[in-house]
Design a protein that fits this description.
The protein is of the alpha+beta class and 117 residues long. The chain contains three helices and three strands. A hairpin with a 2-residue loop joins strand 2 (48-57) and strand 3 (60-66). It is elongated and about 80 Å long.
């Protein structure tokens, strides 16, 4: 069993390495006015574009500005994080199903309990 678990761990780590880097959160492009009093772009109503990464940390929602150069890497990281979360969930379900099978092989149907009066 331990050798089997080790093989599964190695296979999982290999899968995770192919989906590096992982991230959890969301990435959005927003347009906001700046703080300069006489900004020509803001006076025209154009506003300034920025990428914002939103995530949870310690139960609180946090936001960080992200450079446009980093945005594609972070977008890939978020997709990888979603893949990883789905994979971990699937492994949990598989673990439960694997542990249930030996108990059911004992043969026969489950015994019905009679209701108590």
């Amino acid at each position: 069993m331990k050798e089997e678990a080790t093989a599964l761990q190695r296979a999982f780590l290999k899968e995770v390495a192919a989906h590096w880097p992982p991230a959890k959160g969301s990435l959005a492009f927003v347009r906001r006015p700046c703080i300069r009093a006489n900004c020509p772009a803001c006076l025209r109503g154009d506003k300034h574009g920025a990428w914002i990464f939103t995530f949870r940390q310690g139960g609180r929602q946090r936001c960080r500005y992200v450079s446009k150069e980093l945005a594609p890497l972070l977008r890939r990281g978020i997709a990888n994080g979603r893949w990883l979360e789905a994979r971990v969930t699937a492994l949990g379900v598989a673990l439960i199903e694997e542990r249930r099978r030996p108990a059911r092989r004992g043969g026969g149907r489950a015994v019905k309990r009679q209701g108590r009066a």
